Amino acid sequence: MARYPRTALLTLGEPGLRRLGGWTRANAYLKDPAQVPDLWLREFATWREAVDKHLA
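Below the sequence we write its predicted structure tokens.
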């Protein structure tokens, strides 16, 4: 959770993080307005388009 918070959240979800004791930190991370999962998907799509253009 400390090093790769998005990966931990997407892989383990709330139940897994609660079980492993990382939910408090994850919840604080998600309260940051810049860390909304919908924004992550848009950021990924933008990145992917740039990569595809570069590889074309």
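The helical segments are 5-20, 23-30, 37-55.
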